[in-house]
Automatic annotation (TrEMBL):
GO terms for molecular function: metallocarboxypeptidase activity; zinc ion binding. Residues 148-169 have a biased composition (Basic and acidic residues). Belongs to the peptidase M14 family. PANTHER family: PROTEASE FAMILY M14 CARBOXYPEPTIDASE A,B, SLL0236 PROTEIN. Residues 148-178 are annotated as: Disordered. This is Carboxypeptidase. It comes from Natronobacterium gregoryi (strain ATCC 43098 / DSM 3393 / CCM 3738 / CIP 104747 / IAM 13177 / JCM 8860 / NBRC 102187 / NCIMB 2189 / SP2). The keyword Protease applies. PROSITE patterns: TAT. One of its GO terms (cellular component) is extracellular space. One of its GO terms (biological process) is proteolysis. The keyword Zinc applies.
Length: 443
């Protein structure tokens, strides 16, 4: 029902459900080649992250190899008009939706997903057979292409460097929302470009169109939108103003996932006991059934501020199991990388403009937030491939486990609450969840 409403409201008729043949994808890319010449003007620096053009080329090469992977463009970024790609694989009963790099300066999952796609395409093994036969994968390897290519003159020497930004590139337009949303930034890192944080722009109502729903939606002077939904008051809702979030929402509802995963990076969090940097932080999204265990539970506060009222017990349980499983898989893979043992978890707090909290309830998807350390704009961000590997192991192990046992009943959910809460630089803000210093937060 919700899915149909959204599809109708965004004009899904032009949204083909069949895979685009590789030849059409090539033609589509060629049409936008006038965009791509601009890459030549950018100093790419020594960083290993792929440009949008390079990512598109790699995906097309994989899609051409055989029919195990279907590739299509599901939208374009607001500023650069670069493609947002969707990869589909498998024909199983359990649907899994994964988005990566919704914050453009959080690139590690991209290379990890490419390496998984390569295995799915090239490898004949029990693992690959099991994934392709039991799962239907919908994976969006880079949903914020603007942010991925963001560049600026960091050193002031007149030369731009590729820095990445959390935001897309899009000017606020008063004809679309009554107030400038709090997640709009009018001066991105070392540049005069403006944009929105897409992971604050989601809205739980499939039919929501900003400016057409004045009542009961309310904006305050800080650009925060409060909305009533199914008997709950949701604060700091997204206004769904970005084309990226519209494309992700369509893809999600069409995939109708049982599991959903969003891959991020954060500043360097620490293990609260040792003080050492942690390789990842996970976060399950859960509802009233597990609200008692929510670290920021406040009996005087509304449920919607510390748990997700719209996630049922079965979905909550599967989400907790999934997040536990990934942490344990990394533990077991530690080998020479002892920091893989240092998984931590976010204390769950709802964020009503995020992928996880707004989309998961619509299809009973068990959600997972996957936070690797270090954003690309940070000076001194190190060990790129260690983080790529942490993403690759976590995603692949969880796909393998869901393929074998869709309920993940072999994972003990109590283990989740033994994972240490992450320490470090973040402070918890009751209205906005975790916020980083200077607003460059996480999730
Ligand atoms: Zn992020």
């Amino acid at each position: 029902m919700d899915r149909r409403t959204f599809m109708k409201s965004v004009g899904a008729a032009s949204f083909a459900t069949v895979a685009v043949p590789a030849a059409s994808v090539r033609a589509e890319a060629a049409v936008s080649s006038d965009v791509h010449h601009r890459y030549d003007e950018i100093e790419l620096g020594a960083g290993p992250t792929l440009t949008n053009e390079q990512l598109g080329e790699r995906l097309m090469l994989l899609a051409e190899k055989n029919d195990r992977i279907n590739l299509r463009q599901i939208g374009a970024s607001a500023g650069r008009k670069d493609p947002i790609w969707e990869v589909k694989a498998g024909s199983g009963d359990t649907s899994v939706h994964i988005i990566n790099q919704i914050h453009g300066d959080e690139p590690y999952g991209t290379e990890a997903l490419l390496s998984i796609f390569r295995r799915l395409v090239d490898e004949d093994s029990e693992l690959v057979d099991s994934i392709l036969n039991n799962l239907s994968l919908t994976i969006l390897p880079r949903v914020n292409p603007d942010g991925a290519m963001h560049h600026g003159d960091l050193s002031g020497d007149g030369n731009d460097q590729r820095l990445g930004s959390r935001e897309n590139q899009q000017e606020w337009d008063s004809s679309y929302s009554h107030e400038t949303p709090y997640y709009y930034n009018d001066s991105l890192h070392a540049s005069d470009v403006s944009g929105y944080d897409p992971n604050r722009d989601f809205n739980i109502r499939p039919d929501f169109i900003s400016k057409f729903h004045d009542d009961p939606e309310q904006w305050n002077d800080d650009g925060e939108l409060t909305m009533e939904y199914k008997g709950h008051t949701l604060e700091t809702c997204g206004a769904r103003l970005t084309p990226e979030v519209n494309a992700i929402t369509r893809s999600f509802l069409e995939a109708d996932p049982d599991y959903a995963k969003t891959i991020h990076s954060q500043n360097i969090p620490t293990d609260p006991d040792s003080g050492d940097p942690t390789i990842l932080s996970v976060m399950a999204s859960y509802g009233p059934s597990h609200a008692e265990k929510a670290p920021f539970r406040d009996e005087d506060a509304p449920l919607a501020s510390y748990a997700n009222p719209f996630i049922d017990e079965d979905t909550s349980t599967r989400s907790i199991r999934l997040n536990t499983l990934v942490t344990q898989a990394l533990d077991e893979t530690a080998g020479p990388w002892s920091t893989y043992e240092t998984g931590t978890r976010f204390g769950y707090a709802s964020l009503w403009g995020s992928y996880l909290d707004t989309l998961c309830p619509l299809t009973n998807a068990a959600g997972m937030l996957y936070e690797l350390p270090g954003q690309s704009g940070q000076v001194g961000t190190r060990a790129y491939y260690k983080k790529v590997e942490a993403a690759r192991v976590g995603v692949l192990e969880s796909l393998a486990a869901i393929a074998e046992n869709p309920s993940l009943s072999h994972v003990d959910e109590d283990d989740y609450f033994d994972i240490p809460l992450k320490g470090g630089q973040y402070e918890y803000d009751a209205s906005r969840g975790y916020q980083g210093r200077g607003g460059a937060g996480t999730r």
